[in-house]
Amino acid sequence: MRVIIIGAGIGGTSAGIALQRLGHEVHLYDQIRENRPVGAALSLWPNGVKVLNWLGLRDEVAALGGRMDTMAYTDGHTGETMCRFSLSPVTEQTGQRSYPVARADLQALLMDTVGAANIHLGMRMTGIAESDDEVTVTFETGETATADLVIGADGARSATRDYVLGERIERRYSGYTNYNGLIPIDPRIGPADQWTTYVAEGKRVSVMPVAGDRFYFFCDVPQPAGLPYDRADGVAPLRQAFAGWAPGVQTLLDGIDSDASFNRVEIWDVDPFHTWSRGRVVLLGDSAHNTAPDIGQGACSALEDAFVLGLVFATTSLGVLDALQRYQSARTERAADLVLRARKRATETHGFDPEITEQWYAGLRQESGENVIRGILGNITDSPVTIGGLLA
After folding, report:
1. Does the pLDDT of residue 65 top 50, yes or no?
2. Which of 129, 143, 219, 241 is at a distance of 20 to 30 A from 165, taking alpha carbons?
3. Taking the mean position of all CA atoms in its chain, how far away is CA 8?
4. Where does the record place the FAD-binding domain (predicted)?
C-alpha cells in the first residue's frame, strides 16, 4: 500500500514507522524546512512510551528521557513545599517509567527512523482529490503525489481536517499563555530527579528533568489571547508575571537564555468531533484532537493513534475504507475524553474560577500523592496500549 502522511511531527512520524514495519511504502510531507519543533519538550507518560517501545525504540527513548522519580508542589510566593511524593506507583501499576523528553531530540529520532529519503520538507499541501481507488495531493510548489491512503497529521490548523469535515472549525482559546524552554539543571530550582511545580494566583512555574542534565521549564500565565509580544523582550513578561515569587522561580528566570531556548505559545484546543475520515483520507494527532497540555497527554494521544492505526492495518483485510472506519470507531471517544479532561484541569489550576483554584491549593497542602497518582493513572487506564489493565 502506498501511504502519504501530511505532517512530520510526533504523530506523523510514529504512524509512518508503524506502517513501514508492516511493509507499506510511506512518504511524509511537511511544510517546515528543518526540524524545529514547536515547544521545547513533552511528557511521555507510560501509554506514550509503550507505543514507542512497540515501534522498536525502547532503548533510544529511554536514553532521551529524564529520570523523574518524585513530584512536588511548592508555594509560588514562599517557596514552601506543599506536598512531595514518589511517582513509583505510576511505574508499578503500568509496567513502564514516564519520560520527559526534549521534543527536538525525539523528533530527530523518529525522523531518522523513518529515513531521510521518505521525508519531504518544504512541501505545503494545497489540495486533495480522490478517485475510487487512490488519492492525489497537490502542493504549493505545483507538485503532486498519489497514494492509496492519505493521513493528515498536519496539526492544530490542519488543512486535511478542513477536507475531511468539509468546513473549517474554529479553535477555542484555553485562557492562558505558556512559556517554555530548556535550561541547565539547578538544584536551587528543584531536585534533578523531580517534577517541581510552583503555584499561586492561578499561575504555575514547572520544571521536569530531560536528558543532558537539563530542565524542561514551562510557565503558565492566564491572560487574554492576542496580546502583543516582541521576541526582543525576551523573558520580560515572565519577570512581570512572577515578580516577588520564590527564590527558586527567580533562579529559573535568571537561567533562561531567550535566544537559545524560549518559546511563547498561546494555548488553544478544538471541541471534540467524531468524523475523522473521508474516503481514503484520515486524521491523526492534533488534526483530530487538538488538546491543551494540562494533563500532558497530547503527544501520547497522537502515539495512541499511530498504535491503533497500525493494529487495524495489521489485523483487518476488508480494505482501506473499512480499516479507517475501524480506526475512527476505536479512537474518537478516548481522544475526546482527554480533550475534556485537559479543559477541566485548566479550570482547576489556572484560576478561571478562583474559588475552585484556592480549594485545589488547600488540597495540595494535605496531599499524600494518592489523589494525584489516581489522576495520572486515570488518564492512562483506557489507553489501547494498557494490555491487561492496571493493578488495583
Report:
1. yes
2. 143
3. 14
4. 2-340
**DSSP assignment of 263-312:** EEEEEEE-------EETTEEE-THHHH---GGGS-HHHHHHHHHHHHHHH
Q: Residue 149 phi/psi, 5° resolution? A: -150, 135
Across 207-233, b (16+ Cβ under 10 Å) vs e yields bbbbbeebbbbbbbbbeeeeeeeeeee
Closest CA to 363 of 379, 378, 375: 375
Residue ranges and CATH numbers for the domains of the chain are 2-67+103-170+271-348 (3.50.50.60)
β 81-86/70-75 pair status = antiparallel
Instruction: With cut-offs at 50, 70 and 90, classify the pLDDT of residue 32.
Output: confident
* Residue 33, all three cell numbers: 524546512
Cα(217)–Cα(167) distance, rounded to whole angstroms? 37
- Residue 30: CB atoms within 10 Å: 24
Task: Encode pLDDT of 296-340 as tens digits.
Answer: 999 999 999 999 999 999 999 999 999 999 999 999 999 999 999
Report the alpha-carbon distance of residue 377 to residue 371 in Å, rounded: 10
Q: DSSP character for 77?
A: T
Euclidean distance between CA atoms 50 and 85, whole angstroms: 24
Helices (H), the chain: 10-21, 46-54, 58-64, 88-94, 103-114, 159-165, 236-241, 247-255, 286-289, 298-315, 320-349, 354-364, 370-378
Measuring CA to CA, how many Å separate 288 from each of 154, 277, 302? 9, 10, 9
| CA–CA distances in Å: residue 350 to residues 74, 249, 344 | 15, 18, 10
Q: How many residues does the chain have?
A: 392
Q: How far apart are alpha carbons 194 and 206 in whole angstroms?
A: 10
Hunting for cell 511537511 — which residue is that?
A: 30
CB of 186 closer than 8 Å to CB of 255: yes
Alpha-carbon span 263 to 235, nearest angstrom: 10
**Residue appearing with cell numbers 531567550:** 258
Cα 211 from Cα 230, distance rounded (Å): 30
Q: What 3-state DSSP class applies to 180?
A: strand
